[in-house]
Amino acid sequence: MKEKLKLLELFLKSSNFDRGIRLGVGIAVPFAVLYFLGYVEYAPAVVVGTFLNAPGDIPGSFKRKINAILVSIGLTMVITAIILFSKPFLPLLVVALLTISFIVSLISVYGFRASLVSFSGLLAMVMAFAIQKETPHEILVQVGLMGVGGLWYLVVSFVFQKLAPVKDQNQLLSDTLLLIGEYLKLRAKLLTGKAKRDEHVKQTFVLQHKINEKHETLREALLTSRKRSGRSHYEEKQLLILLSSIRIFELIEAKHLDYKLIDEVFGKHKEFLKASKKLSKIMGNHLIRLSELLIQKDKIPNKDTLLTALSNANESITNYVDTVKLPAAREGALMLKNLYDYQEQILQEIKAIRRVMANVKNASVVSLKREDSSHFLTLQEYRLNVLSQNFSLDSTMFRHSLRLTIAIVVAYLIGFLFDIQNSYWILLTIIVIMRPSYGLTKERSKDRIIGTLIGAAFAVSIVLLTQNIVVYSALAFVSMILAFSLIQQNYKYSAALITISIVFVYSVINPNAFEVIQFRVIDTIIGAVIAVVANYLIFPSWEVNNLKQVLLNTLTMNRKYLLATHELYQDINKNNHAYSVARKEAFLAISNLNAAFQRLTQDPKSKQKEFQLIYEIVTLNQTMISAIASIGNFIVSHKTTPASKEFNLLIEKISNTLQFSFDSLAHTEIKQGVAEENSEDAQEKLLGKYHQLSSLRDENIRQGNTELDTETLHELQEAYLMANHLNWLKSLSENLKKATERYRMAIVESE
C-alpha cells in the first residue's frame, strides 16, 4: 500500500500531470468565462484551438517551445480554413486531404519537436470534419477563435513555466537517474548471469537509447537556458546533476567487460564477483531513490550502505588473491581492481549528486564555457534542403508520408461511401497510431483498441448507473487531464481515458450515449486495421533495409572516438575537450543503432532478414565503443606512461579495419592498411611489457617485498588494460569487418 501511495504521489507531482493540468486550465477557463459573459457559442472554437496546440508543449528550450507553438497555431488555422472551404466540393476536398496529409506529415523530418507540430496540423485537418461551418464569415470566425485559443494556451504554458520554472527539467533529471539506476542493475546481471546474457544485452540496447534521448533533451534545456547574466543557482544545480549522470552513464559503458574472458579467468571462483555485482545493484537502487527525491523533496537516504558495499568489493580483491595465490591470481585481481576503480568513480558521482541535492555549498563548480557547451548540443537544421534531401523513396519519412496520405484518403472515402457516422474518428485513429515503422504501428493499434474497449466498458457502466449531465461533464474533464498526463507513459491507459472523455462529451450533447460508444469502438477498429494494413502493404519500410546508413554512421563515429582516445593518450590537457565531444557523438550513434535494432525486432519475422547477423553487428559495435571508453576512462582517471609506438601502431590497425568496413559497406575505394605481421608483433610487445612488469613484481615478492605501491599498481593496470583491450579491439574490429562484409553481400547487394 505504501509503495502504491508513493507512486501516486510521484505521478501527481510529475511534469506529465502538470501538462495535463495546463490543458485542463486551458480548456476550462475560456469555456467558463465565455459562458458567464453570454458568448458560450464561441467557446468550442477557442477550446479546439487550445487543444490542437498543446502537443508542442514539451520539455526543452523554452524559446524553441514558444516557436513550436506559434508555428503550430499558424499551421492549424490555415489547415482548418482550407478543409472548411473545401468541404462542399468533394474533388477539391480529396485534393486538399492529399496535399495536407503529405506535406504536413513530411515536416517530421525536422525532428521530434517538428513531428509534434506536424501532429497538430494533421489533428486540425481531422477536427475540421467535425466542425459545421458553411459561410465564409462563420469559417473565418471559427479560424480566428481557434487562433485565440492557441495563443491562450501559450499564455497558460508561459504562466505555468514561470510558476514552476524547474519542474520539467527536474522531471527529466528524475527520469534519467531512474533509467541509469535500472541500467546499472542490468549491467550487474551481465557479470555472473551467463545463461541470460544475450537477453540482458538486448534489454541494455533499449535503456541506452532512452538514456541518450533524455540526455539530449536535458542538454538542450540546460545548455541553451544560459542568460547573459549567467545561470541561476537552481539551473547550476540541475546542470551539475546532468553532468554527473552523463559521467555515470559513460562509466557504466566503459565497464563493458570481456565477459568470455571473465568466465575463463574466474571459472569456479565466481563468488568473488558477487561483491562487485551487489555494489552495482545497491548503487542502482540508490540512483532510483534519488530520482524519486527530485520529485518528492524528501530526506536523502543514508550513504552507509553504499560505503559498506564498496568496502566489501575492495575486500573481495584481497580475498581472491589470498585464495588463488599469486602469480595465478594476478590477472583476476587486476580485473577486479579495474572493476572496483570504475565503481568507485561511479560512487563519487553519486556522492556529487547527493551533495547537490542536499544543497551543500560549493559542492562543485561548472566550468563549461559557452563556446564549449555548444559542441555538446545536437542542433536541428530547419533549412529547406533537409526537406528536399528526404524527397525520395529511399527516405523513411517520405515513404511514411505517402503511406499515411493514402491511408487517410482511403479511410475518408470509406466513411463517405458507406455514410459512417462520425467517420472522422477513423481518420483520427490513423493519424494517432500510424508510425513510420510497422512494429510500432501494430503495437499502438493493439493498445488503442484495448484502451478503447476498456474506456467504452467503463463508460457503459457509468451510463447504466446514471444519466446525470453534471457527472458526465466532470468525468469528461478529469479523464481528459489524466489522458494527456499518461500519453507518454502508458498509451493503452491514455487511449482508455480519451475514449471516456470523448464519450461523455458527446453524451452531454447527444442523450443516446450507447450509440456514441458503439460508433467510437467500431471506428477505432476500422482505423487501426487500415493503419496496420497500410504499413504492411503500401511502400513498406522494413528496418532491415534502413539499417545501412545508421551502421555507416556508427562505424564513422566509433573510428573518430578511437582516434580521439589515441590523441588523448598523447596529451590529455590539450585533447580532453575533443575527446569528450567524440565520445558524445559515438554514444549517440550507437544509441541510434540500438534503436534501429529494436525496431527490427518489432517487424514481422518474415521481414527480419539475417537477424542473427545484424544482432552480431550491433553487439560488436556496442562492445567496441565500451572497450574504447574503458581505455579513455583509464587515461582520464590515472597518471599514465607515454604512449608506445606499439600502441600507436595497433590504434592505426584498428582504425584502418573500421575504415575498411565503412568503405566496403559504402562501396568506396578501399585503402591499404597496416601489415598484419606488424600488428601481431606490436601485440606481442605490449603483452611482453605486462609480463615483464609481472615478473618483476613476482621477483619482489620472492625477496619479501610484498607491499604494492600505487605507482607499480597503476603501471601493472595500465600495461594489462592497454595490452588486453587493444588485443580485444583488434579482434572486435576484424570480426566486425567480416560481419559487415557478410551483411553487404546478404542484404545490401541483394536489394
Give the fraction of residues assigned to helices: over 70%
Give helix and strand order, one letter per element, not per position.
Answer: HHHHHHHHHHHHHHHHHHHHHHHHHHHH
Count of helical regions: 28
Shape: elongated
Overall average pLDDT: 86
* Strand segment tally: 0
Distance between the termini: 56 Å
**What is the strand content?**
under 5%
Estimated structural class: mainly alpha
Model regions low in confidence, pLDDT < 50 over at least 5 residues = 370-375
Q: Can you summarize the main beta sheet?
A: none
Q: What is the radius of gyration computed over CA atoms, rounded to a whole number of angstroms?
A: 29 Å
Give the total of domains: 4
Provide a descriptive summary of the structure in words.
Pfam families: FUSC (PF04632), FUSC-like (PF12805). Helices cover 79% and strands 0% of the residues. The chain is mostly helical and 751 residues long. It starts with a helix and ends with a helix.
How are the SSEs ordered, and which strands pair?
Blueprint: H1 2-12, H2 15-37, H3 43-52, H4 62-86, H5 90-106, H6 112-127, H7 136-163, H8 167-192, H9 197-223, H10 233-254, H11 259-266, H12 274-296, H13 304-324, H14 330-357, H15 370-373, H16 384-389, H17 396-417, H18 424-433, H19 438-465, H20 469-486, H21 491-509, H22 513-537, H23 543-570, H24 572-602, H25 611-637, H26 645-666, H27 676-702, H28 710-748
